[in-house]
Amino acid sequence: MQCQQLFTFALSSVFCYHFPRFHSLWIAMMIAVFIGQLAQNFHYLGDLLAGADIGILSTQLAIYFSQKVNR
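^ that's the sequence the OP posted. Answer follows.
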């Protein structure tokens, strides 16, 4: 289930980058998934934080390197 957390946060980060107008919606989606999985005891808090960090970091790195390559 950790992959789901990574995917959700990575996808939301990409949407925040490409559609900044809906930034609040993407952040709300991240928080809703986080709270939902924590409330249903699917994951420990540390698992969720690690998944969120890795998902967001990998997306930011991908955006950074794609901008470097496309210049």
